């Protein structure tokens, strides 16, 4: 099968070297659009499962939060294993489609199959089993896909590519949430779940047909595929100290948002007393408002990070997110809660615009599938802990009466998570870029030769490729 391409990317770059060919905007869009499909699935599916637990009485009253954890926890753990492993394998894959596309195509097709199974299932056990398979197939595609930005995007376009990634992730969450809100409002859960799969399928085809792969596969040097898979978990990763700290910070930031997104319907129903139809429509309003705030914040945050650095922008996002969640906890009415949701959206947009750019800055480029897959362990496992802590706290505080204090108490976890995320970002060494990097390369700064400036790695720091 011949695949269309938009741009020739030139010769293969070496280990740790970023591509230099400037990409046309349409290629950057094609690289990023699959995030819409991926985000759509899990942005909408968790809300649909929440609605089924709340309104279809699949479990005893007062245990809905715990049940949601039980339905999703094993699948999320599977995701944490599959994504970096398959990402590392894709770094060495040679095929007519390149090293990433076969995994994206196969994983997406399986996603649609497993979503159809979830749509037709009526027991917690069946849904949990199919959710596990969905996590495996989705991350089978996502691990290799995440290698595209380090593979293809030159340094001057990293901020823009990261911003587009954030925009498409946000649009995916919006699309998935609107589909979920309509499914809840009209009690059409099966139709809504199938629609999520259709959206992912369309975005996958854009990537497979339009994206031109650039970097050649790494040589296996005689190693078996089993050894390649195990290499994803090699201890050499411990030398990448800034990478590890950044993954930890990402984990807690995403965990903070996951508590809110996972329990949003519970919050509207229990803390504000909304009925099923009203909860579905209000949930859509909350998501759209938060998404608009996210999209508005992405481009300015990306540009700001190019001027003042990535880390200060992420710290600001942590502070703003904590304030937004505090407003939601204290909100006496939905309109007041919307203010908190908007602040959370701005914080999330700032983070999405910058986190991926910083991650791309510090990882070894030729092993991008492996490192980006490992970084997404934070994404997969943050949802587990968010549900485990938030769901159990909600059930414990709210009790059988399903009191409104339950979801509010659970949101306290988000504030703590933002504080930890900000603290873990401190040891991350941010590489110099652009003119600052050029000045450093020309010679010692005004501080004097050998004098630390706070921006360059300390002696022995191997965190930068």
Which terms would index this structure?
mainly alpha, 465 residues, single chain, Growth Hormone, Chain: A, disordered N terminus, disordered C terminus
At a glance:
With 465 residues, this protein is mainly α. The protein has 18 helices and no strands.
Polypeptide structure, described:
With 465 residues, the protein is mainly α. The chain has a single domain (25-214, 239-433), classed as MFS general substrate transporter like domains (Growth Hormone, Chain: A), CATH 1.20.1250. It contains 18 helices and no strands. Helix 4 (101-120) runs antiparallel to helix 5, helix 7 (158-185) packs antiparallel against helix 8 (189-210) and helix 7 runs antiparallel to helix 13. The longest helix has 33 residues, at 276-308.
Which CATH top level class fits?
Mainly Alpha
How many separate helices?
Answer: 18
Radius of gyration: 22 Å
Shape call:
globular
Largest sheet properties: none
Domains, number: 1
The CATH superfamily name is MFS general substrate transporter like domains
Order of SSEs:
HHHHHHHHHHHHHHHHHH
Which architecture would the CATH scheme give at its second level? Up-down Bundle
Question: What is the strand and helix layout of this fold?
Answer:
Blueprint: H1 25-32, H2 34-55, H3 64-91, H4 101-120, H5 124-145, H6 148-152, H7 158-185, H8 189-210, H9 225-231, H10 241-272, H11 276-308, H12 310-330, H13 334-362, H14 368-375, H15 377-398, H16 405-410, H17 412-424, H18 434-442
Helix pairs in contact: 2-3, 2-7, 2-8, 2-10, 3-5, 3-9, 3-14, 3-15, 4-5, 4-8, 5-14, 7-8, 7-11, 7-13, 10-11, 10-13, 10-15, 10-17, 11-12, 11-13, 12-13, 12-17
């Amino acid at each position: 099968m011949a695949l269309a391409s938009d741009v020739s990317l030139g010769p293969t770059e070496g280990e740790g070297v970023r591509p230099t060919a400037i990409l046309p905007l349409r290629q950057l869009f094609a690289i990023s659009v699959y995030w819409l499909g991926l985000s759509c699935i899990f942005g909408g599916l968790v809300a649909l499962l929440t609605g089924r637990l709340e309104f279809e009485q699949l479990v005893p009253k007062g245990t809905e939060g715990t049940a949601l954890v039980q339905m999703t926890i094993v699948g999320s753990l599977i995701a944490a294993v599959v994504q970096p492993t398959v990402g590392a394998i894709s770094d060495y894959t040679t095929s007519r489609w390149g090293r990433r596309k076969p995994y994206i195509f196969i994983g997406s097709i399986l996603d649609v199959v497993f979503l159809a199974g979830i749509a037709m299932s009526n027991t917690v056990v069946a849904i949990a089993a199919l959710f596990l398979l969905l996590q495996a197939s989705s991350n089978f595609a996502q691990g290799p896909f995440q290698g595209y930005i380090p593979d293809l995007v030159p340094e001057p376009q990293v901020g823009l590519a990261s911003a587009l990634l954030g925009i498409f992730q946000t649009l995916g969450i919006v699309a998935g949430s609107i589909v979920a809100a309509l499914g809840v409002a009209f009690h059409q859960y099966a139709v809504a779940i199938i629609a999520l799969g259709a959206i992912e399928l369309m975005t996958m085809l854009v990537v497979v047909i339009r994206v031109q792969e650039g970097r050649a596969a790494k040589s296996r040097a005689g190693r078996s595929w089993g050894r390649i898979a195990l290499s994803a978990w090699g201890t050499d990763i411990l030398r990448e100290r800034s990478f590890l700290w950044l993954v930890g910070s990402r984990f807690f930031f995403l965990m903070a948002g996951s508590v809110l997104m996972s329990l949003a319907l519970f919050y509207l129903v229990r803390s504000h007393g909304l009925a099923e139809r009203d909860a579905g429509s209000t949930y859509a309003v909350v998501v759209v408002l938060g998404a608009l705030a996210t999209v508005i914040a992405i481009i300015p945050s990306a540009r700001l990070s190019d001027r003042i650095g990535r880390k200060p922008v992420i710290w600001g996002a942590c502070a703003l997110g904590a304030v937004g969640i505090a407003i939601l906890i204290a909100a006496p009415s939905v309109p007041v809660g919307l203010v908190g949701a908007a602040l959370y959206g701005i914080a999330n947009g700032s983070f999405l615009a910058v986190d991926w750019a910083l991650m791309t800055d510090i990882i070894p480029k030729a092993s991008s599938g492996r490192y980006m897959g490992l970084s997404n362990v934070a994404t997969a496992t943050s949802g587990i802990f968010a549900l485990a802590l938030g769901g159990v706290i909600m059930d414990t505080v709210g009790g059988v009466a399903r009191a409104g204090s339950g979801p509010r108490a659970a949101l306290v976890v988000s504030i703590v998570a933002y504080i930890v995320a900000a603290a873990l970002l401190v040891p991350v060494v941010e590489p110099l870029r652009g003119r600052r990097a050029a000045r450093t390369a020309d010679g010692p700064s005004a501080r004097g030769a050998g004098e630390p400036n706070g921006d360059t790695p300390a002696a022995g720091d191997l965190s930068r490729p």
